[in-house]
Description:
The chain has helices spanning 2-24, 32-39, 41-44, 53-56, 68-71, 78-86, 122-133; strands spanning 108-113, 116-121. It is mainly α and 136 residues long. Helix 2 packs across helix 7 and helix 6 (78-86) packs across helix 7.
Amino acid sequence: MTTTRIPLIAAIVCLPLITACAIFSTEREFDGAQMFMANCASCHGRDATGSVAMGLNLTPPASDLTTISARNGGNFPWNSVLSTIDGFGQGGHNGAMPAFGEGDLGEPVLIERDGASIPVPAGLLALGTYVFSLQK
Ligand code: HEC
């Protein structure tokens, strides 16, 4: 009897704790792929190649996001990608793409770049990492 009771008691005690942690956790999870499908696929396409009517009809058309590295000598230009998504420093940007930095991209997380720690909103990093993962 005792052997079956212990897991049951453990479950009764632990379950509400786990639920409470999930509700009160301050660290939100950002799923880059999911964010992309919800916010970007309308113009860039679900496959991110820009070959959807909405993206093709824009002036300039929505970019093929799978060839960014290929168009940049094999290097993924993190700075310009993140700032394009964020909308920061896009003074001369006359495209139709909205500035997502105006929305809620979450708390900043620190990333290491060139020996420096740079804070990047977690949601922006998730989107950038997803776009990076799409490079051909
Ligand atoms: C309303 C249409 C629209 C939506 C929505 C949109 N984009 Fe764009 N995006 C564009 C257009 C148009 C361009 C190219 C022209 C420009 O840069 O102005 C572009 C360019 C880009 C670039 C630069 C590509 C390069 O070749 O350097 C990136 C990166 C990008 N978008 C990512 C995203 C991400 C990530 C999202 C979703 C969070 C998103 N876009 C949502 C229209 C859109």
